[in-house]
Amino acid sequence: MTSTLAAPGAAALPLHLVEEGGLTAISATLSAGQANWAAANGFTGALGQLCVLPGAEGHPSGALLGMGTEAKRRRGRFHVARAAAGLPEGDWAIATHMTPAEAEAAALGWNLAAYRFSRYKADKPQKARLVLPAGVDGARIDAIVAGECLTRDLINTPASDMGPEELEAAFLHLASEFGAEARVIRGDELLSENFPLIHAVGRASSRAPRLLDLRWGAEGPSLTLVGKGVCFDTGGLDIKPASSMGLMKKDMGGAAAVLGLARMIMALRLRLRLRVLVPAVENAVGGNAFRPQDVLHSRKGLTVEVNNTDAEGRLVLADALALADADRPDLLISMATLTGAARVAVGPDLAPFYCDDDRVADALAEAGQAVSDPLWRMPFWDPYEPLIEPAIADLDNAPAGGMAGSITAALFLRRFVTETPRYVHFDIYGWQPTAAPARPKGGVGQGARAVLDALPGVLGL
Asked: Is 275 a catalytic residue?
């Protein structure tokens, strides 16, 4: 995606940010004709209201963007980006004082608003460009946006064009772009390399399961990212109804999120040693599909009773986490579109995360608020541990009862991380159900920008 941020120039037109009811207050900065035009067009400063001001010979001379009240702004984010699609082509400079955080959010939101998923259908590009506000690092903004756009593209691509093989291709392209080392373990090699859970989940598909492994960076603290790459989830033999299967192209949203985050880290050349692990599978129905009541063996040595083949994400993550854990990274993060229970608890806009380290958790929560990437901490609640312990195996992949589904899934994953002190698990949704400023309907990254912002403090970069 081409950046829609511009360097300062004399031709830039002013964009005034106006609080609700604040037209009179800024009238001194406008000509009499402009003020009269705004009043005649009913401009009040309501949130999102846009008024393009006329100039000589009918050309625009500036614009007003309504910012509403503080209470209304708290209900959303990236409000300046509301103007991006409505302004005429050209360079626009914000003419209202902003704090450094507000200026960065404005630039980020404007650039994110330019995203279009046009692989199958042409879409009109965003023509208005925003002059980079003073003090904002444009290269950093572009790197973050490029990572987010990668995440969105991967999620938005249907499974017909984004199966395990295509996800592998995207993974290898990213590794090549930044000179990272990459390894892929495919098909029955998963058994000889001791990844039995990944193989069990993906073996029924005509598209072979695989584990993708990327390493980048030679010095600094170590960070490992693990992303769930279920490219389509039928539910397996416990097949989903059509109403639940409709969005399952996004079940590789965790993989998309960690790849987007990895791209940000490598583009910004953070001083750390990065590893990215993605178990890429399709959970399909076939004669060799794993079954309810099967007991599966894991890389960790723990056995798992399958009580629902639709709870497959935690299985593929388990083997990948066991591999990651053996390295004892300084920080281990998993991201997955794992449970519907998380959506019931916090809805699609918040990314719930689990972490036993209060310092890490506080840093993530603060970063999420600072960069408009909202998170919500959930508990690794030890009293629920018995719920994931069935009678005939070490673990149950789908405890009965239907309560605390996101927590029990997180507890299941934690059983495979025994050597790494700092582990964070994100149970993301990865989908924007309705369009919002800087976030069109469709695939969306969650948690990546918050993690990126928190890394310097957490890892001492």
From this structure: no
